[in-house]
Design brief:
Elements: E1 3-10, H1 12-16, H2 20-29, E2 33-40, H3 44-50, H4 60-67, E3 72-80, H5 82-90, H6 103-107, E4 116-118, H7 122-132
Antiparallel strand pairs: 1-3, 1-4, 2-3
The chain binds adenosine-5'-diphosphate and magnesium ion (MG).
Adenosine-5'-diphosphate binds near residues 59 and 63.
Length: about 140
Protein backbone atom coordinates (compact mmCIF):
# COMPACT_ATOMS: atom_id res chain seq x y z
CA UNK A 1 0.00 0.00 0.00
CA UNK A 2 1.18 3.46 -0.82
CA UNK A 3 0.46 6.84 0.67
CA UNK A 4 -1.19 8.90 -2.06
CA UNK A 5 -2.73 12.32 -2.54
CA UNK A 6 -5.96 13.00 -4.38
CA UNK A 7 -8.07 16.02 -5.28
CA UNK A 8 -11.55 16.33 -3.80
CA UNK A 9 -14.24 18.91 -4.54
CA UNK A 10 -17.34 19.45 -2.44
CA UNK A 11 -19.70 20.61 -5.18
CA UNK A 12 -22.19 23.54 -5.21
CA UNK A 13 -25.25 21.42 -4.31
CA UNK A 14 -23.48 20.42 -1.08
CA UNK A 15 -22.04 23.82 -0.12
CA UNK A 16 -25.56 25.28 -0.69
CA UNK A 17 -26.95 22.87 1.90
CA UNK A 18 -24.16 23.62 4.41
CA UNK A 19 -22.80 20.05 4.19
CA UNK A 20 -19.07 20.84 3.96
CA UNK A 21 -18.23 19.68 7.47
CA UNK A 22 -20.41 16.56 7.25
CA UNK A 23 -18.69 15.49 4.02
CA UNK A 24 -15.20 16.19 5.38
CA UNK A 25 -16.09 13.95 8.35
CA UNK A 26 -16.61 11.00 5.95
CA UNK A 27 -13.02 11.40 4.76
CA UNK A 28 -11.52 11.89 8.20
CA UNK A 29 -13.44 8.97 9.72
CA UNK A 30 -12.04 6.75 6.98
CA UNK A 31 -8.42 7.77 7.45
CA UNK A 32 -8.01 10.36 4.74
CA UNK A 33 -6.39 13.57 5.97
CA UNK A 34 -7.20 17.06 4.67
CA UNK A 35 -3.73 18.46 3.92
CA UNK A 36 -4.94 21.49 1.91
CA UNK A 37 -8.32 23.14 1.60
CA UNK A 38 -10.00 26.24 0.19
CA UNK A 39 -13.44 27.53 -0.73
CA UNK A 40 -13.76 29.26 -4.07
CA UNK A 41 -16.11 30.32 -6.82
CA UNK A 42 -15.06 28.69 -10.09
CA UNK A 43 -15.17 30.81 -13.22
CA UNK A 44 -16.78 29.30 -16.34
CA UNK A 45 -13.36 29.15 -17.92
CA UNK A 46 -11.93 27.22 -14.97
CA UNK A 47 -14.89 24.82 -14.88
CA UNK A 48 -14.65 24.17 -18.63
CA UNK A 49 -10.93 23.49 -18.32
CA UNK A 50 -11.29 21.27 -15.27
CA UNK A 51 -13.89 19.06 -17.02
CA UNK A 52 -12.31 19.30 -20.49
CA UNK A 53 -12.22 15.46 -20.81
CA UNK A 54 -16.04 15.58 -20.91
CA UNK A 55 -16.30 18.30 -23.56
CA UNK A 56 -17.88 15.95 -26.12
CA UNK A 57 -20.47 14.62 -23.65
CA UNK A 58 -24.07 15.86 -23.94
CA UNK A 59 -24.06 17.00 -20.29
CA UNK A 60 -20.87 19.12 -20.53
CA UNK A 61 -22.46 22.59 -20.79
CA UNK A 62 -24.97 21.81 -18.06
CA UNK A 63 -22.20 20.40 -15.85
CA UNK A 64 -20.17 23.59 -16.27
CA UNK A 65 -23.19 25.77 -15.38
CA UNK A 66 -23.84 23.67 -12.29
CA UNK A 67 -20.21 23.84 -11.16
CA UNK A 68 -20.26 27.66 -11.34
CA UNK A 69 -23.71 27.95 -9.72
CA UNK A 70 -22.22 28.44 -6.25
CA UNK A 71 -19.07 28.03 -4.20
CA UNK A 72 -17.07 24.83 -4.06
CA UNK A 73 -14.74 23.61 -1.33
CA UNK A 74 -11.60 21.98 -2.70
CA UNK A 75 -9.34 19.65 -0.73
CA UNK A 76 -6.17 17.65 -1.11
CA UNK A 77 -6.69 14.36 0.71
CA UNK A 78 -3.78 12.16 1.79
CA UNK A 79 -3.74 8.55 2.94
CA UNK A 80 -3.19 4.92 2.01
CA UNK A 81 -4.46 4.35 -1.54
CA UNK A 82 -6.13 7.76 -1.32
CA UNK A 83 -7.26 7.85 -4.96
CA UNK A 84 -9.27 4.62 -4.77
CA UNK A 85 -10.31 5.11 -1.13
CA UNK A 86 -11.79 8.51 -1.92
CA UNK A 87 -13.74 7.05 -4.86
CA UNK A 88 -15.09 4.32 -2.54
CA UNK A 89 -16.07 6.85 0.15
CA UNK A 90 -17.88 8.98 -2.49
CA UNK A 91 -19.70 6.05 -4.10
CA UNK A 92 -21.04 5.66 -7.63
CA UNK A 93 -21.50 8.71 -9.88
CA UNK A 94 -25.29 8.26 -9.80
CA UNK A 95 -26.54 8.59 -6.19
CA UNK A 96 -29.41 6.24 -7.05
CA UNK A 97 -26.84 3.50 -7.73
CA UNK A 98 -24.44 4.30 -4.89
CA UNK A 99 -24.00 2.09 -1.83
CA UNK A 100 -25.63 3.26 1.45
CA UNK A 101 -23.14 5.06 3.67
CA UNK A 102 -21.33 6.71 0.76
CA UNK A 103 -21.32 10.48 0.33
CA UNK A 104 -23.22 10.44 -2.95
CA UNK A 105 -25.89 8.05 -1.64
CA UNK A 106 -26.30 10.00 1.60
CA UNK A 107 -26.22 13.53 0.12
CA UNK A 108 -26.36 13.50 -3.71
CA UNK A 109 -29.46 14.95 -5.39
CA UNK A 110 -29.00 13.57 -8.93
CA UNK A 111 -26.38 12.10 -11.27
CA UNK A 112 -25.25 15.68 -11.93
CA UNK A 113 -25.74 17.20 -8.47
CA UNK A 114 -23.84 14.41 -6.74
CA UNK A 115 -22.13 16.47 -4.02
CA UNK A 116 -18.51 15.41 -4.53
CA UNK A 117 -15.71 15.05 -7.07
CA UNK A 118 -12.65 12.83 -6.66
CA UNK A 119 -9.72 12.22 -9.00
CA UNK A 120 -9.98 8.93 -10.88
CA UNK A 121 -6.27 8.06 -11.20
CA UNK A 122 -2.96 8.97 -9.58
CA UNK A 123 -1.89 10.84 -12.70
CA UNK A 124 -5.11 12.85 -12.85
CA UNK A 125 -4.83 13.51 -9.11
CA UNK A 126 -1.40 15.12 -9.62
CA UNK A 127 -2.74 17.33 -12.44
CA UNK A 128 -5.93 18.26 -10.56
CA UNK A 129 -3.99 19.11 -7.37
CA UNK A 130 -1.71 21.36 -9.43
CA UNK A 131 -4.80 22.97 -11.01
CA UNK A 132 -5.95 24.27 -7.61
CA UNK A 133 -3.00 24.39 -5.21
CA UNK A 134 0.58 25.62 -5.07
CA UNK A 135 3.15 23.57 -3.16
CA UNK A 136 3.19 25.98 -0.21
CA UNK A 137 -0.59 25.54 0.27
CA UNK A 138 -0.21 21.78 0.81
CA UNK A 139 0.98 20.79 4.28
CA UNK A 140 1.15 17.03 4.81
P1 LIG B 1 -17.27 10.87 -11.64
O1 LIG B 1 -17.47 12.24 -11.02
O2 LIG B 1 -17.90 9.78 -10.80
O3 LIG B 1 -15.82 10.58 -11.99
P2 LIG B 1 -17.74 11.36 -14.48
O4 LIG B 1 -16.27 11.71 -14.57
O5 LIG B 1 -18.28 10.37 -15.44
O6 LIG B 1 -18.11 10.85 -13.00
O7 LIG B 1 -18.61 12.68 -14.64
C1 LIG B 1 -18.17 13.91 -14.07
C2 LIG B 1 -19.37 14.60 -13.46
O8 LIG B 1 -20.29 14.93 -14.51
C3 LIG B 1 -20.19 13.74 -12.49
O9 LIG B 1 -19.66 13.69 -11.19
C4 LIG B 1 -21.53 14.45 -12.54
O10 LIG B 1 -21.54 15.65 -11.76
C5 LIG B 1 -21.62 14.82 -14.02
N1 LIG B 1 -22.31 13.78 -14.80
C6 LIG B 1 -21.85 12.55 -15.12
N2 LIG B 1 -22.71 11.85 -15.86
C7 LIG B 1 -23.78 12.68 -16.05
C8 LIG B 1 -25.02 12.58 -16.74
N3 LIG B 1 -25.36 11.45 -17.40
N4 LIG B 1 -25.88 13.63 -16.71
C9 LIG B 1 -25.56 14.78 -16.05
N5 LIG B 1 -24.39 14.95 -15.39
C10 LIG B 1 -23.52 13.92 -15.38
MG1 LIG C 1 -14.58 11.48 -13.40
Amino acid sequence: MATERTLSIIKPDATARNLTGKIIAYFEQQNLRVIAQKRLQLSRRQAREFYIVHKARPFYDELVEYMVSGPVSVQVLEGENAVLRNREIMGATDPAKATPGTIRKDFGESIERNSAHGSDSLENAKNEIRFFFSDMEIVG
